[in-house]
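PROTEIN ENTRY
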Amino acid sequence: MADDRNAPLTKGDLLEALNVVVTQLRQEIKNEIAQLRAEMKQEIAQLRAEMKQEIAQLRAEAQHQYDHLMEAIRDSQTEALKAFYSYAQTTDIKLKDSAAADASLRERVAIIESRLLEVERRLLMPPQS
């Protein structure tokens, strides 16, 4: 067939040429599929790397928000404790004042009781002379 280009083709020649073309097409398709697989693997690896980076960034942002929230909670606790301490100081002063007044009142009552006792003794037991 390769020797004479003007010779008529036989079925065998056509089948042989067809097999060569089919084999070449199969090889080209295999090469294309292998190239597509390699490209897909590369794209998937790149997407994974990007996703890991995004996840790390989201984690960092979430941690920052958590830290900010904890600081706000601590600040509000501090403010509540300061307000309570201020109220407790005033109450403590009032209690000290009332304790001092109570002690003073008890002292005065004791003086009155001792005088009353002295008066009762004088009345019930006149002086002996």
The helical segments are 11-124. The longest helix spans residues 11-124.
